[in-house]
Amino acid sequence: MLMKTLILAAGCGLLLGQPARAEDITNTIGGGAGADWRDGGGQITAIYKTGTEETATGNRPGNVLEFDPIFEEFPDGRTGWMFPQRIEEGINIAEAVPEQRGSVSSSNVLTGGIEGELALMVDGDPETALERKDVTVIQGMIMDIDLGARFGVSGVEFFPRNAHPDFPTPEHPFQGDFIKAYEILFNDGTEETQVEGRPALESFLLRAPNDESLVQLAIPPQYVRFVRLLSRTGVEFEIAEFRVFGTGYVPNAEYISNIYDMGDNLALWGNIRWLQESVGLDQFSDVRVRTRSGVDETPLVFNRSEQVFADKFTVPWKVGAIVSTPQGDANLDEMLAAGETKEAFDIYGDLTFEERNELAITRDEYNDLGPVKGPIVDDLEGWSQWSAAYDISAAGVTADNIEDAQVGVRIVSPGPRRYIQFRIEFWSDDLESATGIGPLSFTFSTPPPAAEIISEIYPRFVAELGGSETFTYAVMPTNIRPGVDPGFDHFEIETPVRVEGIESVEVVFPDSSSQSADFSGIDLKGLTEPIADASGDFAIELVEDRRFRVRHPTITESVFADEVVSRLNIRFRARVLRFGTKFTGFAISGESIGQEVLPGNVGLLGDDDDDIVDVGTTTQRGLSVDVPISGASNKLLINVRAEPNPFSPNRDGANDQAMVRYDLARMFSPSPVSVSIHELSGRHVRELFAGEQGGGSYAIPWDGTNDAGQIVPPGIYIVRIDLDSDSNDARVAMSVALAY
User: How many beta carbons lie within 10 A of that of residue 625, not counting itself?
Assistant: First the structure.
């Protein structure tokens, strides 16, 4: 309700002609206090593909999740939690095949209605049966059961009517009509066991002949999804029930939230966080949370298949779609029928995204298409792909801070956008282990500072890896919606290492007037509090190892299409440690969530500014800086030094320790690093650091003691840094003098 109220308030602001104030809002699902997991969270029902031409709605693909679980580990239950389903011993999971999106089929029986007859094997009714009697060909009949998901399986049994002591059916005395020879085969449903998209089944047991009317097979507990019963007899038979007994936790389960609609004002995404808990062995199970964001309600595209002469085309528009062109109305289907396929697709391709959306086939329309249904595909234009799984292991999330907007990790799905959705994947490699999820909370802000902001950095190529370079970071809002977006008064830039200096900050307004501040004389090394200029309109608010933030006069007006443009220019000194380093920027309104800017062409920033797209448009290279890729730039360990050198650890408060400083360059993932002290003879003195480090600048202190904590004698010592990288290994040794 809070979210809806705030969105309505933003709409009222628009009517009054005043920009809405940005509001940070937290939404929680699960955990008892939040919305119920069963309700899906968002306002728009989730839809997902179940096949090339099939979709389903709901939040639990496979229906193998359990809410408010009561397990042996949770005798009092976990209200508001969600766990993969646990199958108790003796539970027949084949009976739930229809609910689990499973199926029963036969690939070598073409008789009409065979699917309905096969379904009688798993309907839980011992008085109904699949009957293969009075038929010409029954030898070698295949009966395939797709359980719909992977389960731990410990047993299988099958029997004709009146053959099971627990299910007597005297009125159907067919206990002698059992399969006289059979083979059982399994597949665990993993991708590795698929061949050309089909499960490669492995034989578990071949019994020929068989003299048991009630077949009961104990199976070493294992994961199974596909089961095949193969009759190897020419004798008639029937099967009243085919039962598969599960065990343990389901190894794979999935939850898809409903789509959250943030309203016309759009929203920025803040942090996401959740509580999770494991039973069994922690290392054998986990949950993975991902997000995606969109600009329309449907993350799928429904297509038609149309035959035009000898060719078949995939068509994304409605039947009989008409488009207005300068030459008049064009019926795209009539153009296809006339063989004008290229012209039809060109007209469609020239439409705006919004115009193409109006012509898109809806799910209901698609279901009515019949034999001309085309493939259903993900909408990669209107929606982002699912993000990588978020890692909150170091975020310190607790039940007390689950709704704290500062806790968690930043949502990386694109924003500002109107729609967002999340997906939770549960997995386990052990039948007795599982991880569940309790409350999940995420924060968003609406409206954003602007509908779109682009930025550019210059230069985008530096001559020296790890050398200090002065950059210009230019920011241009291309669409601050009047009466909606509040604009921004802070800007933050992520840097590969700690910024060495901030030269100036300038704001240029639409009337070409400007304000600026000179910070070139400010020493940033000891900065602990904001530093403002004489006017108080500008300030350096934050400088950390990998980011800095400045304050500036509020930019509230900028619409590029109307030739009303504001611009923010920030000049700073920093070092670049690998090819393609991206300087990500965030525009911030007050204390709200920052809006990540898009790389683009802001204008001519220097004589050799090599923009190849028009001013005001986006380009992937706008915020990335390159370095030479040969020669000395191939080094991984650079800028190695000790400061001060010499140092005197006599505890007088001056130069009591040396900082071993170094940069790790050209690193794309963390690698093992060790920093150690040795005598000139090579004898080990002290290990200063051993662990993994990624690309960046590091400083490791040495206080002049050995591993036992004793002050070492004065003299010359060797500092050795060893890097064990996937691409290459590196070792650097240097001397440091210790004196009293």
Answer: 22
In Å, how far are 151, 154, 191, 280, 433 from 248, measured between CA atoms? 8, 9, 21, 11, 8
- pLDDT at 261 (0 to 100): 97
* Residue type at position 525: K
Q: In whole angstroms, how far apart are CA 220 and each of 14, 96, 154, 429, 687?
A: 66, 22, 6, 16, 50
d(CA 594, CA 591): 9
* pLDDT reported for residue 499: 95
pLDDT (0 to 100) of residue 1: 26
89-119: per-residue pLDDT in tens? 889 999 988 888 899 999 888 777 888 999 9
Residue ranges of the chain with pLDDT lower than 70? Answer: 1-20, 136-139, 630-634, 726-727
Pairing mode, if any, of strands 311-315 and 468-479?
Answer: unpaired
Q: What are phi and psi of 15, to 5 degrees?
A: -65, -35
Q: What is the pLDDT of residue 595?
A: 97
Angle (nearest 5°) at CA 589 between 584 and 593: 60
Within 402-491, residue ranges assigned H as helices are none
Please give the Cα distance from 192 to 209 (Å, whole number).
33
Q: Residue 31: left (phi > 0), alpha (psi -120 to 50), or beta?
A: left
3-class DSSP string for 301-367: EEEEEEEECCEEEEECECCCCEEEECCEEEEHHHHHHCCCHHHHHHHHHCCCHHHHHHCEECHHHHH
Neighbours of 16 (CB within 10 A): 9
Angle subtended at Cα 703 by Cα 701 and Cα 707, rounded to the nearest 5 degrees = 100
